[in-house]
Every structure is written in C-alpha cells, then in structure tokens.
Amino acid sequence: VSAGNGCGHTLLTPHSGTLSSKNYPGTYPNHTMCCWRLQAPPGTSLLLAFGDVDLESSEHCAHSSLLLADPQTGTAYGPYCRNSVPSAPLLVTNSSTVTVLFNSTSHRSGRGLLVSYATSQHPGMGAASPGMQRHPWDVPDPPLTMCFSVYCPAGCKDIHGDIWGNPSQGYRDTSVLCKAAVHAGVIADELGGQVTLSREKGITLYESAFANGLRSKRGSLSEKRLVFHKVCCLLSPACDDVLEVVTFNASSWWHEVDMLGQDRAWVAERAALSTTGHSWAAEPGAEAAWLELDLGTRRNVTGIITKGSSEQHDYYVTSYHVSSSRDGKNWRPYRGSSGQEDKVFEGNADSQGEVSNTFIPPIIARYIR
Asked: Which residues form the LCCL domain (predicted)?
C-alpha cells in the first residue's frame, strides 16, 4: 500500500516489489511525502535493496529523508540522505511488515530514491537499479558461459535505465539486468521471479527489438553479454519451437476490389507470419474481430509474434486480447500472471517490425484466438 503526493513508480506484491520517489531519476519535488507499507506473507521476513538513495544533504537529514520502521519489533532504520547513506546496500529485517517513509522540504538537488524488496525466500536479489554496470548485491562475475541465478523483484519494467539487444542474441552487459529479463520474457513484470542467465562473450552489434511492452536499443560492441535461459516447458523439449497451425479461421475477412477492378482476398490463411504479400484483415467496419488458430492438438503455447501487412498497405494491430480453448467451443480469456483482468497485449507500432509477447504462465490449448 502506498499513500502521499511524493510517490513515483510503485509496484508492490506480497513477495517482491519496486518503489521510487516522484520524478525519479529527475530531481524530486519540494514539500512532498510518500509512505509505503510493505507486507510479506506470515513466517517470512523482508529484504530491502537500496538501488539509489540520493537525497540532498542536511543535518540529521532534516530537509529530505528516507526512514524505515519495523512496527513488529519497534526497530527504525535511518533517517537516510546523501550525507547519511545506508551502511550496506541490502537490509535484512526480521519482520514481515516494514513501513518506508520518504519526505522532502525545500531543496535544490537530488535524484530521490529507488528501493526494491523481496522476502527471505528469495535472498539472491537482482539488479533493479538503473544506470550502473555493477550492482552492490549482484553475484560476483562468474567465468564466461557459467550459469548463475538471480531473483528479480516485481516492477522492473518501468524503472529508469536502458537495455540493448534482444531475446535471441542476448543483451549488452551494461543493460539493466532485471529490465532485460522482462524484455526477454523469462519473468512477468507484475510478479518478478528467479532468472537463470550466463555472461558470455560479447558481440559486435546488438539489434533492437520490441518485446513484452519494452523496446530495447541498438547497441555497439561489448566485452560481455547477458544471455537468459528459459526453464523449458514440461510438454515441449524446446520452448522456442515454432508451432504449426493446422487451420486459420476468422470472424470475417476483407474482399478488396482495387481501383482497376481486381480482386484481393485478405483471408484468414494469409495470417501466417511467413506469408509473403498481403495479410489477413477483417471486413472493414467489423467490430470485435478475431483470428483463430487451430494447432491440431493440445499444445504448450509460450508466446506469440505479430507483424503488420507491409505490401502497399500500412496496416497493423496495435493491441489485442488472447483467448484459448481446448474444444473450440468454450473459450477462456488470458489473464496473465496477475489473474485479475483480461490481459491487453501491446502490438505493433508500424507495419514492418515484428513484436514478441510471452505468455507467463504458458497457455495449454488446441485453439488460440
């Protein structure tokens, strides 16, 4: 729970989360406050990682401060500011409840704060902080290609910091690690989770990609790169195999007659990603249009790639819902890892590029709409 006019990006879940001051990493505003109440499951304790605490210096941190309180034990941590920083980047508490209080008076400078937390069940907290090539709570550099595991808190997608690369080739090692994990589709931002990766030899050029609501940057040569490894599905030996679609079906299709009187059928079968020329399109003016894929048998579906129709037409889908069925009659909307409401997937912004979205958890079904 958070309250106050000084709260910035905040995502709090029972097992992990990320919080920041307003405008972070820009200068935080004058005369603001925010109070976050962190509540972990009973029987666990909270670990807090200080990604950045940059509050203007003042005696006893009187002008701006970060204060943490453990109501169960009566313990207080802080106040913290630029001249009184936390003694360690990771604070291990003995409580399942912690109150985080940030306030400011008049000041001239300071990025504010960025804090992540997880429960004692996930001690290997990962890089949720921006901008730094090394993070105080990162594991030491392993030898090249050796796998290691890091826990990424929820809420890393919208923190400040860049990523370079894509899921297939890996990411420049200066990328914000947990933000790259969301882009790669190995965790859902609203839940966080354990990620397995390796540091491998860098490559000459990292290509940009749009995936899971994030656009990575095009990056130059680096000495090392980050490669994420998916824990592969029980029902498939390889998670990234392209599934064969037996039949395409659609709510409608566009029968186009061009200026020369020539016919062009934008039928459902043209929706296959490898199709050259024009794609599928619903009948103009159709509402609640849908495209249906029959996979022939029940399959484990871990994601989807979409692309627009670039031949003569600048057509593409900007957002969409997904439903699945095991029998083609009873349909279940996909709600993602949160399970609260139907998930809206971010689609394409132009007709040329491909956009990837990962299903976490995967869909087990024969039919996808």
From this structure: 150-226
